[in-house]
């Protein structure tokens, strides 16, 4: 690792690297190498501007066209959503990263995206403490047994688990007025209190492991559906916290399957995918 070059590390090599007295300096060097990398791609600001007013700020931080999520046509028109596909370690488009929806239109399009992709896992990485606008138009009800309706979809909070100090788990049922239901696990991490300050490492890793466990044990298997539904990860800007989550999740899976980790290359690819 270091000097802007990819270098995979074994488990022992990773431990040795972290324990190196110069580890902090080496990480800073890698960070500088990453931010100096140039992204290439185009984005359609004119498309976004057609759907959102300046007051929404939904078109800030646009994703590249080549991996931007495009919703299906409805009533003769396409709705815009500021969301991007992200490749996982062994699956293409394993994640969708997006901004936390803060307007009624954005919430409606958010649930359309969930339904169209049949996504069974949602990871939320900001709270009222970090994003005060969240409570104004919630996209799911905070209490059990209550239902919210957005367009053709009804979202019911069927079960709420609050037995973990660092996150909440909601069991949601999404029902389409045309027929069909989708069961969704909604994870809210509530211990990332300040931007630019990472949460406690052990707590965040426990959270990622729990999300992974549910994704492997409760989500409809690929063999049955014939495809893998993307996990939806969102935060205030749709980038910083979401990318941290994806980078760690991908790297954990990489080291489990290969015995090696290449964090630099993983982060570099993520940055190129979303244009940061």
UniProtKB/TrEMBL annotation:
<dbReference type="Pfam" id="PF00102">
    <property type="entry name" value="Y_phosphatase"/>
</dbReference>
<dbReference type="GO" id="GO:0004725">
    <property type="term" value="F:protein tyrosine phosphatase activity"/>
</dbReference>
<dbReference type="InterPro" id="IPR000387">
    <property type="entry name" value="Tyr_Pase_dom"/>
</dbReference>
<feature type="domain" description="Tyrosine-protein phosphatase">
    <location>
        <begin position="63"/>
        <end position="271"/>
    </location>
</feature>
<dbReference type="InterPro" id="IPR000242">
    <property type="entry name" value="PTP_cat"/>
</dbReference>
<dbReference type="InterPro" id="IPR029021">
    <property type="entry name" value="Prot-tyrosine_phosphatase-like"/>
</dbReference>
<dbReference type="GO" id="GO:0048666">
    <property type="term" value="P:neuron development"/>
</dbReference>
<dbReference type="GO" id="GO:0009653">
    <property type="term" value="P:anatomical structure morphogenesis"/>
</dbReference>
<dbReference type="InterPro" id="IPR050348">
    <property type="entry name" value="Protein-Tyr_Phosphatase"/>
</dbReference>
<protein>
    <recommendedName>
        <fullName>Protein tyrosine phosphatase</fullName>
    </recommendedName>
</protein>
<feature type="domain" description="Tyrosine specific protein phosphatases">
    <location>
        <begin position="205"/>
        <end position="272"/>
    </location>
</feature>
<dbReference type="InterPro" id="IPR003595">
    <property type="entry name" value="Tyr_Pase_cat"/>
</dbReference>
């Amino acid at each position: 690792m270091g000097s802007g070059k990819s270098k995979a590390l074994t488990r022992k090599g990773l431990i040795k690297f972290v324990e190196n007295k110069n580890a902090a300096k080496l990480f800073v060097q890698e960070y500088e190498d990453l931010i100096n990398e140039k992204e290439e791609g185009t984005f359609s600001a004119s498309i976004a501007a057609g759907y959102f007013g300046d007051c929404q700020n939904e078109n800030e931080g646009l994703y590249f066209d080549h991996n931007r999520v495009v919703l299906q046509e409805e009533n003769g028109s396409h709705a815009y959503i500021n969301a991007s596909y992200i490749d996982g370690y062994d699956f293409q488009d394993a994640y969708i990263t997006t901004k936390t929806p803060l307007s009624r239109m954005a919430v409606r399009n958010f649930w359309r995206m969930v339904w169209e992709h049949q996504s069974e896992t949602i990871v939320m990485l900001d709270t009222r403490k970090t994003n005060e606008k969240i409570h104004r138009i919630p996209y799911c009800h905070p209490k059990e047994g209550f239902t919210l309706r957005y367009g053709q979809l009804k979202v019911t909070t069927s079960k709420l688990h609050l037995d973990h100090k660092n996150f909440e788990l909601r069991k949601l049922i999404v029902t389409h007025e045309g027929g069909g239901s989708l069961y969704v696990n909604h994870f809210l991490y509530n211990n990332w209190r300040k931007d630019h300050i990472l949460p406690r490492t052990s707590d965040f890793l426990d959270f990622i492991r729990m999300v992974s466990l549910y994704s492997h044990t409760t989500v409809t298997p690929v063999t049955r559906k014939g495809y893998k539904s993307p996990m939806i990860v969102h935060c205030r800007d749709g980038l910083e916290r979401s990318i941290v989550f994806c980078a760690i999740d991908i790297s954990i899976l990489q080291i489990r399957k290969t015995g090696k980790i290449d964090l630099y290359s993983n982060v570099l690819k993520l940055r190129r995918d979303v244009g940061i």
